[in-house]
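Lab notebook, bench 4. The sequencing result for the construct came back, and we need a structural model before the next group meeting so we can plan mutations. Quick request posted to the team channel:

Model the 3D structure of this chain.
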Amino acid sequence: ARFGDDPTPAVRETVARALFNKAVTLTDADAKIAVYDDVVARFGDDPTPAVRRQVARALVNKAVTLTDAGDVIAVYDDVVARFGDDPTPEVRETVAEALVNKAVTLTDAGDEIAVYDDVVARFGDDPTPAVRETVAKALVNKAVTLTDADAKIAVYDDVVARFGDDPTSGIQLVVKRAREVSTDLM
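Done. Here's the predicted structure in token form:
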């Protein structure tokens, strides 16, 4: 109410974050969704990277809150449509997470694998540790979804080849798991 119309980027970010946090705090799903929609309505076209991240996060959380799979997928698609080419690392991270969440929501294994492949195609060479970790997780999820043991092993080997030397602790946990599962499948 006090700062909602302030044009200052830092203030707009604070308002967007306050609304996002309000939605997270609410317990009623419809109320949460209404606040997430408010974040998108107020700030959906904002050029400020930190504000764009709040909008992307609001959309992802809205999708998580929704119960109809078709609606969930449409919201994840909206995240990708709005922010798929965003240059901001934190926004790219949110887009990658949205794609992985979308894949998990899909019921057809072929569609799910195609989305994991999209994550790798879009973000496979990303320099941001959090984005690389999401790519590694997408590859592991793809391997889990595959039914052929040799194909699974090939994807786990790809995880190790791509990320085996990455010093990021979260990525190393994914690589360790990929090595263990690959070994178990042999």
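The mean pLDDT is 94.
Will bring this to the meeting.
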